[in-house]
Amino acid sequence: xxxxxYTISKSRRNEVLALETDRLRLAVLRRSEASRVTDYxxxxxxxxxxxxxxxxxxxxxxxxxxxxxxxxxxSFLDGSLVPLWITMKETGEIIGRVSFFNFAYGxxxxxxxxxxxxxxxxxxxxxxxxxxxxxxxxxxEYRLHRVEAFVLPENEPSLNLLKRTGFHYEGKxxxxxxxxGEYRDHEAFYILENDVISRA
Length: 200
Description:
Blueprint: E1 7-9, E2 15-20, E3 24-29, H1 34-43, H2 45-49, H3 62-77, E4 82-88, E5 94-104, E6 110-117, H4 126-142, E7 146-151, H5 156-165, E8 168-179, E9 182-192
Parallel strand pairs: 6-7
Antiparallel strand pairs: 1-2, 2-3, 3-4, 4-5, 5-6, 7-9, 8-9
């Protein structure tokens, strides 16, 4: 039985896969969208810097983002990454991303997730909507049992997001990721398949 929170939509020319929620469209984008992705990253560079992995200058160029989108495409096809760019249904504006990675199958059936949002769209429930829909999709499509997330201890909005979405606190992940110039500890959370409601 499919889970609540999303519907699969017919893909457009610039998409490989697309989902829809109430207000949003989540899609695996093709390399033709590199310019729009770069614009989004540049305008949110300072906002994301405190909580995102460390990037070099060339990351914020169209040529680099074309390579990243090609990597996304190939990794999506081989089942190792689900890279969903978040756009507004009404305008098509890119406002964020939620991605799933580190897939483990067999006895694990798990993955990790990460996400970021445009500063102008915070506090409006968009990431809660996107994350709920995306988790429901990956649990349905990949038959997952568990999804994990890791957040900096001072990132209160993200901590609150995970709690709203149904994640459970698990503990601390020491020296987990290079953030803004240094390796940082993260708080670890998880959500299980039984936490995500199926449609009646």
